[in-house]
């Protein structure tokens, strides 16, 4: 019998791997916005057509890429962000896996325009099914634009799994908000089918929360701020009256990365204790900054789950910080502690 095992060609391996990173248009939104943040952009624009099924474009004014980097960026495991495994535990960037652009290029038609400050001309690249169709110099402003067209055009089974435009758009807005909330000093905009959905001028965290979650929060945010030797927690919790019947405005960030943690959510719920009804959910936007060496963010490709070296300490610290903030607010409810 002949041997039967073969290595998959790169473009097929890429398409398979892409499924982990890019499940829907919103996953591309997260990856492309994070790349723009990592590139040091101060302005990031997201343009969507048909909930990202037809077009999804991110334009940034970050540091751009050289001609060679622009090409290699689409290879799998191509990253400028880590060099060795230890770097994962010192990481300051949102990305590090070097998989996003390769995945996007494996399942969509992609156009890149990019230029660095030191280059007179930028680079234009067209790529489809992991194959570069065109690469040429082009005039462009400093920064990068990546357009992703016709997501999953070559994987019809996956395209059929996409939900209605309304449902996919909700996912896109969720991801957009999660990034925009964490970087209030960056301008973000989102347009969908030519309509402006968000236009977020730069400001402080409180201003960004109000821009995103609405004016009803402007006098209802209680500041949280607590420091320990290797960990800070800061941000805002909504006054008890902002609690909702459905899990709504709850945002947790670890080193600026949005994460889901039922465990830490519980810490906050218990800090509110008697102040809100048993069946309602407090509102919060909280950030924990801690030494990257005590957290493992490489648990899942989307990095929304993380592992703390000592989860109990983080739990107790967050709970205490929220309790402390709420206690100050309830001793003198007429004073505004939100500043
Ligand atoms: P990762 O972000 O994990 O490094 P990506 O596939 O998302 O992997 O990106 C690959 C590389 O391409 C990045 O490490 C970065 O050097 C470069 N890159 C991607 N997007 C941008 C951008 N908007 N501006 C500048 N460089 C970028
Ligand atoms: Mg990335």
UniProtKB/TrEMBL annotation:
Keyword set, alphabetical order: DNA damage, DNA repair, Endonuclease, Hydrolase, Nuclease
Domain DNA mismatch repair protein S5: 209-327
GO MF term set: endonuclease activity
Origin superkingdom: Bacteria
Job description of the protein: This protein is involved in the repair of mismatches in DNA. It is required for dam-dependent methyl-directed DNA mismatch repair. May act as a 'molecular matchmaker', a protein that promotes the formation of a stable complex between two or more DNA-binding proteins in an ATP-dependent manner without itself being part of a final effector complex.
Family per record: Belongs to the DNA mismatch repair MutL/HexB family.
Name of the protein: DNA mismatch repair protein MutL
UniProt organism field: Parasediminibacterium paludis
Name of the encoding gene: mutL
Range covered out of full length: 1 to 339 of 632
């Amino acid at each position: 019998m002949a041997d039967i095992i073969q290595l998959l060609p790169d473009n097929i391996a890429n398409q398979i791997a892409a499924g982990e990173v890019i499940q829907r248009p919103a996953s591309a939104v997260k990856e492309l916005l994070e790349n723009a943040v990592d590139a040091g952009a101060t302005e990031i624009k997201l343009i969507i057509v048909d909930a990202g099924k037809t077009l999804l474009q991110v334009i940034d004014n970050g540091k751009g890429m050289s001609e060679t980097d622009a090409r290699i960026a689409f290879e799998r495991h191509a990253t400028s962000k880590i060099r060795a495994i230890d770097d994962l535990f010192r990481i300051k960037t949102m990305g590090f896996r070097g998989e996003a652009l390769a995945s996007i290029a494996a399942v969509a038609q992609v156009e890149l325009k990019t230029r660095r400050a030191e280059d007179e001309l930028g680079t234009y690249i067209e790529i489809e099914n992991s194959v570069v169709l065109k690469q040429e110099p082009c005039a462009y402003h400093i920064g990068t634009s990546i357009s992703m067209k016709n997501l999953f055009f070559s994987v019809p089974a996956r395209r059929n799994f996409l939900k209605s435009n309304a449902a996919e758009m909700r996912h896109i807005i969720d991801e957009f908000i999660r990034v925009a909330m964490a970087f209030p000093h960056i301008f973000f905009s989102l347009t969908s089918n030519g309509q402006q959905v968000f236009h977020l001028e730069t400001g402080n965290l409180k201003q960004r929360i109000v821009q995103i979650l609405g004016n009803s929060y402007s006098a209802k945010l209680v500041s949280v701020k607590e420091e320990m030797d290797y960990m800070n927690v800061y941000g805002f919790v909504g006054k008890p009256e902002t609690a909702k019947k459905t899990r709504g405005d709850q945002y947790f960030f670890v080193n600026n990365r949005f994460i889901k943690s039922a465990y830490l959510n519980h810490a906050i719920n218990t800090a509110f204790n008697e102040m809100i009804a048993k069946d309602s959910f407090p509102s919060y936007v909280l950030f924990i900054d801690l030494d990257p060496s005590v957290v493992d963010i490489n648990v899942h490709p989307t990095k929304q789950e993380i592992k703390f070296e000592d989860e109990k300490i983080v739990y107790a610290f967050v709970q205490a910080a929220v309790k402390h903030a709420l206690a100050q607010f309830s001793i003198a409810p007429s004073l505004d502690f939100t500043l």
